[in-house]
Amino acid sequence: MTTPRDLLMVAMDLESGRSSEQGDLSLALAGAEVIDLLDVQAIRLDGERIVPVRRPAAGDRLLDEAALSLVLQEPYELVGDWLWRRGRGLFSSYLAAFEAEGQVTRQRRRWRLFRTSRLMLVDSPAHRAAAKRWTSGDAVLAALAAAVGIHGERTDSPGIADDAVATVLAAVNAAVMELGLVRQRRAIEGAAFDNIWRGG
């Protein structure tokens, strides 16, 4: 299992009636990919720039895809820029992979006027491994989850000794906050537009 997969499984497990924003999760998933690529020494960070070192055989299609999409020429790509570029629609890509692999199933609900369905994780070795990593207090997984508002407030990544990983986590936090500000601005603009049409 990879950190992005573990993160998404934890997010699905711990929704508890609230849904993390897909955009936030996509940014965090992209950050998790960088952390895994650092772990297998496929990349290194030069300040905040992602420097490819070698092509890994990660054994995971999406992580291999991430490695293949790295910018190979100087001045290389900033971590923050990677999060926005790679993160676009990444939540949907991982969820589609889960569906294709049988990691999730649709739970159908019948309400008074209409039927709905939601994706639920199945009991699988991957799911159990993600849950075990979460309950063990894995600092990286906890920090990524906190960045998208799961189980606690954002922190300054306590327990993260690796400077490169801490840099990635800081970039994820900054990107999620920026996306939240964009949503807030759009909501305000939308409300103002509605008031104009209503004559307010």
Give a verbal description of the structure:
- The chain is an alpha+beta fold and 200 residues long.
- Helix content is 57%, strand content 12%.
- The chain contains eight helices and five strands.
- The protein has helices at 3-13, 22-39, 61-68, 79-87, 90-101, 125-135, 139-147, 163-198; strands at 43-46, 49-52, 77-78, 104-110, 115-121.
- The strands form two sheets. It has a three-stranded antiparallel β-sheet with strand order 1-2-3. A two-stranded antiparallel ribbon has the order 4-5.
- Strand 4 (104-110) and strand 5 (115-121) form a beta hairpin.
- The longest helix is centred in the last third of the chain and has 36 residues, at 163-198.
- The chain is globular and about 55 Å long.
- The protein starts with a helix and ends with a helix.
Task: Provide the residue-averaged pLDDT.
Answer: 85
Strand content: 5-15%
Order of helices and strands: HHEEHEHHEEHHH
Report the biggest beta sheet as strand number plus sense, adding barrel if it closes. 3 strands, antiparallel
Please give the count of helices: 8
**Total domain modules:** 1
Q: Whole-number radius of gyration?
A: 18 Å
Estimate the helix proportion, in percent: 55-70%
Overall geometry: globular
